[in-house]
TrEMBL record:
PROSITE patterns given in the database record: ADH_SHORT
Protein name: SDR family mycofactocin-dependent oxidoreductase
Keyword Lipid biosynthesis in annotation: no
Pfam families xrefs: adh_short_C2 (PF13561)
UniProt organism field: Nocardia terrae
InterPro entries the UniProt entry points to: NAD(P)-bd_dom_sf, Sc_DH/Rdtase_CS, SDR_fam, SDR_subfam_2
EC number: 1.1.99.-
Protein family membership: Belongs to the short-chain dehydrogenases/reductases (SDR) family.
Enzyme class, first EC level, given as a word: oxidoreductase
Origin: domain of life: Bacteria
Amino acid sequence: MSGRVALVTGAGRGIGAATVHALVAEGWSVLAVDRACDDPALPYPLSSRADLDRVVSESRLCAADSGSVHGYVADVRDTEALAEAVGEAERRWGGLDAAIACAGVIAGGVPLWQMPDRQQQAVLDINLGGVISLATAAIPAMLRRPEPRSGRFLAVASAAAARGMPMLAAYCAAKAGVAGLIRALGAELGSTGVTANAVSPGSTDTPILAESARLYDLETAQSFAPQQPIGRLLHPDEIAAALVFLAGSRSSAITGSVLPVDGGLTL
């Protein structure tokens, strides 16, 4: 995949960081995008600029000969900022071949009707709105590539898109929206050479899962492991591996799909 260019949101930690590492190791040039600061609407810390810088530095150490990476600060709720990020990738590397929406947050811990409005809006605007914003900004850039194209629009959904999870109703709604969006984009993109797909992770060892454990008054995130048939939490690298496959040439016949990478959680 030498010479390919990707933009990854939510790159400061978790699945986004793992995806940046994996792409650069495969020879991709990657614009690693993150808000890189906390959100006052959410009761737990988000990734910082130091986190994003660390991901960039670590990726450079393991980069393949043709791979490179650059950090970029933008909020996925800001379509204009994402359009500027896409423009940065095009100026820096000559185009865009993949856009991967990994940015996500969680909030809840109470029934939907008791959830503070600001938290509910943040969950919907980042987890679903952020994917829509990235699609709006990035797909035209991928369509600007000359034919035959092989663009990839990818998103991280969740097992919560298929399972009703108490006290996480807004999160479930946002992730179900991502799944529906991907199916529609697959149909809209048709024979353009650009595909749209998502992965749907189960309980993955990330800061979001740690916050989920706190919301459920569990001692640690490891408490979620027994609900998955494989009997353990997933690692962000396992989700990233699926995203890198979907970003590559061997996934050319796959579009409009939501791939479960969930340890059997949704069986």
